[in-house]
Amino acid sequence: MSAIEVKNLSKIFGPRPERAFKLLEEGMSKEDVQKKLGLVIGVYDISFKVESGEVFVIMGLSGSGKSTLERLLNRLHDPTRGSIIINGEDVTKMDQKELIQFRRKAFSGMVFQNFAILPHRTVLGNVEFGLELHGVDKEKRQKRAQEVIEVVGLQGYENSYPSELSGGMQQRVGLARGLALDADILLMDEAFSALDPLIRREMQDELLELQTKMKKTIIFVTHDLDEAFKIGDRIAILKDGQMVQLGTAEEIIVNPKDDYVKAFVEGLDRTGVFTAGTIMQPLKATAHVNDGLNTVLHKIRRAGLSSMFLVDSQRILHGYLKADEVATEVKKDSVDEKKTPNPSLIHTSETVHPDTQLTDVINLYSESTGPIAVVDGNNKLLGVIVRGAIIAALSKGYKPEDNGSADQTTTEEKVE
Amino acid sequence: MLPFRIPIREWVSGAVDYLSTQFSVIFDSISDLVLFLVDNFKDGLLALHPLVLIVIIGLITYRMAGLTMAIVAVFGLFIVENIGLWIAFNETLALVLSAEVFVIVLGLPLGILAAGSDRFNSLIRPILDFMQTMPAFVYLIPAVMFFGLGLVPGVIATFVFAIPPLIRLTNLGIRQVPKELIEASDAFGATRTQKLLKVQMPVALPTVMAGVNQSIMLGLSMVVIAAMIGAGGLGADVLRGISRLQVGQGFEAGLAVVILAIILDRITAGFGQMKKAK
Lengths: 416, 278
Ligand SMILES: Nc1ncnc2c1ncn2[C@@H]1O[C@H](COP(=O)(O)OP(=O)(O)OP(=O)(O)O)[C@@H](O)[C@H]1O
Ligand SMILES: [Mg+2]
Description:
The complex is a heterodimer. By secondary structure, chain A is of the alpha/beta class.
């Protein structure tokens, strides 16, 4: 069972909203419907499923309906049409009383762009807010709040008021207020958009790290492609209230469905300054052609990779080895572990030159199953292309000198 | 222009007559309640030795408005006692406080209702406008007709004159609570009551307190007028000064009103800002 299942969901703002559907079905645009009927299309005919534990990003330009879609899920907006099934229950059919109970049971509240924390309460008072509403007794809720305050790194500020905190700290309070609850689904609406870039990255990293432990189902709204790619398992791209594409970061980069999505992806590297050379990462380790099987396996394990390039003493590339295949080979009794890998284990690697354009790199990356090596004219190995670097290059925040950045550890899965 | 006169005055006095006879039980119990409140306030205040009360008020002022204001307050109260207006001063304080109790008990819920319903808001808005633009004297007449002469109609007239700003500002304060805070409390599963008590009222508190402050100031401005129908207190001294052309006495009583106004103003204004200053 999916955590969330949305079917043909629409939200039209204005009096007698049903009027809009006929025109929309005839293909009239959002703008024209608004002109003709005075109705605003918030969200139109959207369907998707979100699995439990997934980070699902809703992305799009301003006014595309991201917030509306998110607010439909917990019914801060009432849908005009369509159904929302959460944990097997149809949210659209609930009355006010059931709805309050359901929000408490299913949602860890919501995190807002402008924090929306209570100015008259201390950090502790804000973090325990949800539990207090749910009637948890004081001692218990303060203990829980204290734990979460430590998780988000606000210990020492329990008794401070929001006005005494920086934006980043206030948003930690907003996040902690949600995390204090056990419910599975956490809604975040542009939660990091108001923060300056450095703090913002930091919060993104922290959220990802937290998520590996807590495994909540997160619905994350953003207008920033970089953030979407970094955080999202899957990304839904909205335009004028409709969903134009849904997929993983790779699927969207490689296969933008229409010009709107393409503009998002390409617009980020219009200058063409990025080449394979500027985004390649240095290699953690390589296997030498004279290395015995055992040595190779040891190197692979120590570097924590799933595959490794094979080079000779001139660092000329000979191909790559897969960790699982080497391991299987070593296990065979008949094999001499000191022997160098036999040719059947050596796979040909895709290669690019340092001055290959980013778009070509992306295309190659999406088609290849193995790692992509960056080599010079003599086939000498220079570096490797990793997913994180591609995505970082597509975003504005990337600096080419950033090589070997923190991203490497979280995003290297394809090389490894 | 018309061949006859529209009998507004007959209608009004007829209605007042009718109401005061038909609903005398209600008016009597209101009257009793007002008297009970005023008497208790007055007796309570006067039971204390002036010096004790001066110290208490000084401490409250210090807490709410700082040292300078506390010194001003203590000095002012000392003067009031010294010029022999202590009892009148406390009578007036009791009258204003009693009226304010009614203002808060009725004004807060009405303000909350107005914030929750556009319909109700547009219904009471013209009534509030009417109440505020009507010359204060006009309230004296029905007040006297329903409650006779004395303290009670004074309190009632003060109440009617002073309640609009509290209703308005409570309404405004709640409506100004940021939309995201409301969304947040909904998203966390708040009931209506929880939303009101834990989010809307606390966030609106500074504005609501501004309403309390304004209504107290308006109430004080009614002191002299209320004295015309026998409400007593400092207003009576002011009136006596005017009618007997005793400029000095009139001025002294007026000064005492000003001192009371300053103290009440600073204390209530300070309350609205207390949370923020912390
Ligand atoms: N309460 C409302 N009443 C009327 N129209 C609304 C309401 N809320 C949103 N809209 C309209 O619905 C459309 C989608 O708005 P929404 O806030 O969901 O966009 P968004 O993608 O979140 O944009 P942003 O990035 O600016 O937050 C917009 O055209 C907006 O004007
Ligand atoms: Mg939005």
